[in-house]
């Protein structure tokens, strides 16, 4: 029902804004993305890059302006806008600026959410059909497949008419994302760090109790 909005997934939108309004980048950033950090000694050499119009990569001769820090940097959960923030949509933060700079970050953040409509009347639903609504604390450390497996495991342990099954599922998802305390902090079963972010989960049943067809 949704997709992530990250500096990576919205790279082209961010780069287009930086291209159209270079004053937002000052003399510190470039809207171009390179395959790796450009070094001063590489001036005049060729390196893979991409701009706001490209999904693939091409070669470019490195110029002085290319030594600036990229508008979008990092990969996955470590991707950042202007080396500062890891989200691209949100409310507030009007005074947020790049560290040790006067450049504002707000112009690159969109307040428009993605809206999708799911018509419940078009499908038949049973008590095991649920919508899981969670914060980054859940999704940063848990995949869709892992959430689905937890849904199957927890709901199958309860009777379809037992409303507490949905509360138990939400609790299981929160506890699973938090991990368990070990010598080196809270850890997941794969030994990776548990979520250090807020973990809020809502489980919304799409079918009424006992509504198996």
UniProtKB/TrEMBL annotation:
Entry's Gene Ontology cellular component terms: mitochondrion
Which InterPro entries does the UniProt entry name for this protein? PP2C, PPM-type-like_dom_sf, PPM-type_phosphatase-like_dom
Select a single GO molecular function from the record's annotations and give it: [pyruvate dehydrogenase (acetyl-transferring)]-phosphatase activity
Q: Identify the residues that the record assigns to the PPM-type phosphatase domain, covering every copy.
A: 1-206
Know the name of this protein? PPM-type phosphatase domain-containing protein
